[in-house]
Amino acid sequence: MSLLAETAPLAALCAGGIGTMFLVAGVSKLRGHDAFLGTLASYRLLPSWSYEGVAWGLAGAEVLAGLALFSGFAAGFGGLAAAAMLVVFALAMGINVARGRTSLSCGCTPGLVSETLSWKLVARTVLCVPLALAPCFASGVSAFVWGQGVMAGVALYLVWLALVALPPERVPGSGGGQEA
């Protein structure tokens, strides 16, 4: 068995996680178009006449990349597209962090999770690039194994999203807060 065949389930797991991240981000940008348009403009990296087209195009590209990663047969294309977008996102965030503009929203998922720019966020985005590329190297994986891996990746992404988005629960008497 080749190394690529042995890592196919891991590639499917990455396709599910990164695919879900891009699908959620793209749909959020389509639904919250005006909010995303404002975030995109706040980065001050593009000419003002291009914001509208870039906002719609980027959201559509994220949805298509996510769906391609899920598919199995177009996962290589989806992985390349996702990796390219992640590099562009990291560069855009890095330029603004270097400019000292760290109060900007990342714009990742309008309406869901909003982080401000930081080098930590840039690094996390860069670390997602190899995960996005992993499906490009999967070959000969059965639809059943691909489906299982993708669903596990979806589940992992949703657990991460819940941990980031949900407020911590304060239990009375646990010492986690001020008591009256």
Can you offer a commentary on this structure?
The chain is an all-alpha fold. It has one domain. It has 7 helices and no strands. The protein has helices at residues 3-6, 8-31, 33-42, 51-71, 75-98, 119-133, 143-165. It is globular.
Instruction: Tell me the number of helical segments per DSSP (H or I, 4 or more residues long).
Output: 7
- According to DSSP, the number of beta strands is 0
Q: Residue ranges: pLDDT <50 for 5 or more in a row?
A: none
Number of domains: 1
Helix and strand string, N-terminal first? HHHHHHH
Q: Notable features of this structure?
A:
mainly alpha; globular; single chain; 180 residues; transmembrane
Provide a compact summary of the structure.
This protein is mainly α and 180 residues long.
Write the layout of secondary structure elements.
Blueprint: H1 3-6, H2 8-31, H3 33-42, H4 51-71, H5 75-98, H6 119-133, H7 143-165
Helix pairs in contact: 2-3, 2-4, 2-5, 2-6, 2-7, 3-4, 4-5, 5-6
